Amino acid sequence: MKTAFITGATSGIGKAIAQNFAKQGFRLIICGRRKEVLENLKEELAVSTEVCSLAFDVRKKDEVFAAIESLPEEFKNIDILINNAGNAHGLDPIAEGNTDDWDAMMDGNVKGLLYVSQPIIKIMKSNKSGQIINISSVAARQTYANGVVYCASKKAVDVLSEGMRIELTEFGIKVCNVQPGAVATEFSEVRFKGDVEKAAKVYEGYDALQAEDIADLVSYIVNAPERVSIADVAIFPKAQAEPRTVFRK
């Protein structure tokens, strides 16, 4: 039984991946900041598989390291890491940007990914096997006005994914960078600081991707033949041509 470690598992893409993996019988380590939500998800998934939950904030390295160190012995041998936790805050030009928003994005999307990855990479290197999937964004492919810092943080994820692949291929570790386009999740609610009405307009007039679509893609990646290493994947809804261009009805 393979063990998968999933960050940002309490909602959206992370939750969908956890549910997908549970159906396949993976042993799961689900992580998030909202402890009550995490425990409810654990109860749901435990019907299908073994589950361990870790409540921590990826932006706080001491919490991250302590949480991973606290894993029960049977969960310590991690085969798959899904770096999904991340955020977008605000849609402002740099000149008017909120520096707290910048910190939240850089700390969560970049430093948080590194904090989680380092101890798990050590485990995988020791085992000479493993797979890391980093959830980036099509925003890394094309910078857009008023979202420059978010785009930069996701470009950094692309670079880290490439760097991990260069450093880890000799140890039998696969690394994949997944770039989703518009996915109808809580993402926009966070970006607009809880403004549900404003967030809903992001997905009006077209059929946006669903979290399950990304989970299906991730499932394919982890179940590909051992000889296959999928390096980079961009996935758009049919109506989206690039990050800034969506054709609405």
From TrEMBL:
A Pfam family that the UniProt record links to this protein: adh_short
Cited Gene3D superfamilies: NAD(P)-binding Rossmann-like Domain (3.40.50.720)
Q: Which SUPFAM superfamilies match?
A: NAD(P)-binding Rossmann-fold domains (SSF51735)
Q: Which GO terms describe its molecular function?
A: oxidoreductase activity, acting on the CH-OH group of donors, NAD or NADP as acceptor
Q: Which InterPro entries match?
A: NAD(P)-bd_dom_sf, Sc_DH/Rdtase_CS, SDR_fam
Q: Which domain of life is it from?
A: Bacteria
Task: Enumerate the PROSITE patterns for this protein.
Answer: ADH_SHORT (PS00061)
Q: Which UniProt keywords apply?
A: Oxidoreductase
PANTHER family given in the database record: ALCOHOL DEHYDROGENASE (PTHR42901:SF1)
What does the sequence similarity comment in the record state about its family? Answer: Belongs to the short-chain dehydrogenases/reductases (SDR) family.
Query: What is the official name of this protein in its record?
Result: NADP-dependent 3-hydroxy acid dehydrogenase YdfG
